[in-house]
Amino acid sequence: GRKPIVTIDGPSGGGKSTVSRLLAAKLQFTYLDTGAMYRAVAYQCREQGIDPDDNARVTNLLSMLRITLLPPDPGEDDVRVLINDREVGTSLRTPEMGMLASRVSAMPLVRASLTGMQQEMGAAGYIVAEGRDTGTVVFPQAAWKFFLDASPEVRAHRRAAQLRSKGMEVDEQALLQQIVQRDKEDSERSIAPLMAAADAHIIDSTGLDVAEVVNLMLRIIQENP
Ligand code: C5P
């Protein structure tokens, strides 16, 4: 049957993290940022000098990996991430870490491991899960599924503003290219590609602000109890 879970999938920069956090607060659900977990694996690979294609070393890394997600600080979008009890800060959120996360996330081994962790985290329901495959693979029983899209230009612009607000310098044109490249890789990989679930509500946020998207989702949830 359907589980009290909301899934929000879509390409990078579509506004998923802000929308997910606000929607979770409105519903009093827990926000599960699955992308942060792929970034955590990427981070560990870089820390330990592991080539993401090195199956043996990645297997070993995964067997020792404990990821803890804590709610964002007040006024912040990003969940706090603890890797083996050590908190990692904004270095997880750089575009470079996003690219590396996209690479590690194409490995079946990594996906199997993180998908299992996510399903455990969501076993009791009452979560808003955000990512690329949360409606298709991780929580196919979710009661409410959304696919949040926007034009690449709008997404690059939003992502640039977000990174600047964290004090990072950004070249918006380069960012646009990275976003297009990462979406292509995420969409074309053979396992768990980025795509809308058949039963997902597709929302194009190009002309909408965050509050409008959240309200639209709340309305759809209320209309489909
Ligand atoms: O959402 P975020 O930009 O933090 O995700 C980083 C990368 O992690 C994505 O580009 C994607 O390759 C991967 N990812 C994934 N499946 C998810 C969430 C993220 O493959 N459910």
From TrEMBL:
<dbReference type="InterPro" id="IPR011994">
    <property type="entry name" value="Cytidylate_kinase_dom"/>
</dbReference>
<keyword id="KW-0808">Transferase</keyword>
<dbReference type="Pfam" id="PF02224">
    <property type="entry name" value="Cytidylate_kin"/>
</dbReference>
<dbReference type="GO" id="GO:0036431">
    <property type="term" value="F:dCMP kinase activity"/>
</dbReference>
<comment type="similarity">
    <text>Belongs to the cytidylate kinase family. Type 1 subfamily.</text>
</comment>
<feature type="domain" description="Cytidylate kinase">
    <location>
        <begin position="6"/>
        <end position="222"/>
    </location>
</feature>
<feature type="binding site">
    <location>
        <begin position="10"/>
        <end position="18"/>
    </location>
    <ligand>
        <name>ATP</name>
    </ligand>
</feature>
<dbReference type="GO" id="GO:0005737">
    <property type="term" value="C:cytoplasm"/>
</dbReference>
<dbReference type="GO" id="GO:0006220">
    <property type="term" value="P:pyrimidine nucleotide metabolic process"/>
</dbReference>
<keyword id="KW-0418">Kinase</keyword>
<dbReference type="GO" id="GO:0005524">
    <property type="term" value="F:ATP binding"/>
</dbReference>
<protein>
    <recommendedName>
        <fullName>Cytidylate kinase</fullName>
        <ecNumber>2.7.4.25</ecNumber>
    </recommendedName>
</protein>
<keyword id="KW-0067">ATP-binding</keyword>
<dbReference type="InterPro" id="IPR003136">
    <property type="entry name" value="Cytidylate_kin"/>
</dbReference>
<keyword id="KW-0963">Cytoplasm</keyword>
<dbReference type="InterPro" id="IPR027417">
    <property type="entry name" value="P-loop_NTPase"/>
</dbReference>
<keyword id="KW-0547">Nucleotide-binding</keyword>
